[in-house]
Amino acid sequence: MNDSRNNNNNNNNMINDNKILDHDNNENEPEISVNVAANFFTSTYNFFSQHFNTLFIKILRQGPIPKHIGFIMDGNRRYAKKNNKKIIEGHQMGFDTLHSMLEVCKLLGINTVTVYAFSIENFKRPPDEVNKLMGLAKEKLIELCEKSKIIKKHKIRIRILGNMKYLDSDLLEVINKAVETTKYNTGSTLNVCFAYTSRDEMTISVKSIVKMVESEQLQIKDVNENLLEQNLFTCGNPPLEILIRTSGEIRLSDFLLWQCNQNCYIKFVNCYWPEFSISHILPIILEYQVNYKSFKEKRIKSDQTMQN
Amino acid sequence: MSKSNEFRMSSIIEFSNIAYLFCLGIIIILYAKPNLFYGFLFIILHLMFKIYRMYLYIFTNVQTHPTLINQSQILEDLKGLNKIPKHLAIMFWGDVKEKTLIEAAQLCCWTWCFGIKVLSIYEAEGNLKQNANSLQSHINNISQQFFIHEKIVPKIRVTALDTSINYENNDLNKSDLDLDLQVNLVSREDGRKHIIKTTKNLANDVIQGKFKSDDLDTAELDRRLSVPKLSEPQLIIFFSPNIDIDGFPPWHIHLTELFHIPENYKFGYSIFLQGLRKYSKCDQRFGR
User: Fold this and answer.
1) Would you say residue A91 has pLDDT above 70?
2) ipTM
3) Domain coordinates of chain B in residue numbers?
4) In this structure, CATH architecture of domain A63-195+240-307
5) A242: β partners
6) What are the TM regions of this chain, as residue ranges (chain A) (predicted)?
7) Strands ordered across the beta sheet of B118-122
């Protein structure tokens, strides 16, 4: 049963891959432009850089584009310290960066974006900062659902991934509301990992499988990798293809360990998250495209081994 | 004007006409179908990027002379390091051949010199596991030359990791205690498949009433997944131009530093040393 479903999925993927190459049907393409506010006379540099970025995006769209990209948004606090700002201001700017990155991803045609907002380990931080962060999260979620133009324009669906038992009821209400209001958006998906660690996610998945076996919905011999994957928070999303961590740290810090285990580019960028911009992400996409051929071969191979 | 000259002139004019028409045609096509224009730029961009990479490749991979590494040099390098990983993992470079096996044996000797206790070598397909014996014999040969000044040659033992051994009734053998360096060979089988196997065992235990499914938490799963010898490495060194985890046990890399040098395709001591230096500078905050 599972195998046949997987097979279907593969076929779909292959069809999609073929579609990437023929871009003759222009009707469905979104209008591409990056914040067209800059004026040639007032800010010449911005004017040119924006047009250059727009052109760059249009060029990159000719090639294969990853379907799922992950960000570890690290370095907000260090950025604030470096620039003599308050910590909360750093987080605020980090959120703005996320907002602009969402737009860029959408223009590039990346459908699923997963970001690491708050780890379970982060609860160890001073309670004052944790409270402020929770407040900020609440505020920003409300802002995202109600006011954000990008969410509305591109019909982005918000999902919160994480262990909800760590969160207080206030925040849960806001989260539920945000998820409910954007539920029917079909444009693309923004996964916000909140109170998340990958080990926790895997444990929950294993637990649900064990419970299914216990209640005899499932036999032990049917347990396989696909099943475990379907019980992860990211089920239904395309496989993760690029994972970017900012701030120059070179570890994954318990983020999407299962998902990045195979056929995933991991990139460590040497700048803090609020500094991360379009000029950092476009070269990464270019590199992905140049290596795409070997990447695809590997993927086909691993899919075959997974089915066996 | 001679006849032949005239002929040449007219042919040049004809050619320039054709070229002119050709250019005009291209411009019209590009105007009508802008995607072709972008596609053209796309190809040029990719070409430029490939040339750039080749340039980097030549710069980073042209070595002067492979210097022989000896023990005293390593001891010198060791002084500059604040901390050393207890467990180091290495991604195997290239195919399993005589040459790479000898390199791996050298690597084991370096690792011992740095005072690392456990070394895991990951090779996805499991070819290295099958060659465990020949790796062991290479290590025996090389360590005798390498440790000329040591009175006792350190004991380095290679084992192919076998996750099917149950964690409970596998006590460490006595011979393990006086071991100087344990080398584990890890393959894709020990990654996701091992988690699936553990899930099956857990389900079995639950059915037989040995374990309650509600008691399952991260710590318990960690205990079950960590068979002896498969612990979390503090550092993984990639001898490849980009990081591809390629099936390394996912559970065991949650705080591991992943080190690589972009555009490097080669195995070498300098990369190994740079990885250890980077690790000694890394500062882990554990979420705080």
Assistant:
1) yes
2) 0.81
3) 3-61, 71-281
4) 3-Layer(aba) Sandwich (3.40)
5) A69, A265
6) none
7) B156-160, B181-186, B118-122, B87-91, B235-237, B257-259
Query: Is the confidence at residue A9, as pLDDT, over 50?
Result: no
For B278, nearest residue in chain A (alpha carbons) = A250
- pLDDT, tens only, A12-67: 444 344 433 333 343 444 455 555 455 666 677 777 888 888 889 989 998 999 99
Right CATH for B71-281 from 3.90.1150.10, 3.40.1180.10, 3.40.50.300, 3.30.365.10: 3.40.1180.10
Q: What mean pLDDT, rounded, does chain B reach?
A: 82
CA distances for B245 relative to A247, B249, B260, angstroms: 20, 9, 12
Tell me, what's the pLDDT at A40? 66
Contact B238, B259 (CB under 8 A): yes
Give chain A's length: 308
The residue with tokens 């347990």 is A223
Domains of chain A, by residue range, sit at 63-195+240-307
Which of B200, B201, B205, B217 has the highest number of chain A CBs within 10 A, making it the mutation to test binding with A?
B200
For chain A, the straight-line distance linking the first and the last C-alpha, in angstroms and rounded, comes to 14
Q: Which residue, among A235, A23, A233, has the nearest Cα to A109 in the 3D structure?
A: A23
Residue partners of B224: CB distance under 8 A and separation at least 6:
B167, B198, B201, B202
Q: Does A301 touch chain B (CB under 8 A)?
A: no
Determine the distance in angstroms separating the CA of B11 from the nearest CA of chain A, rounded to an integer: 38
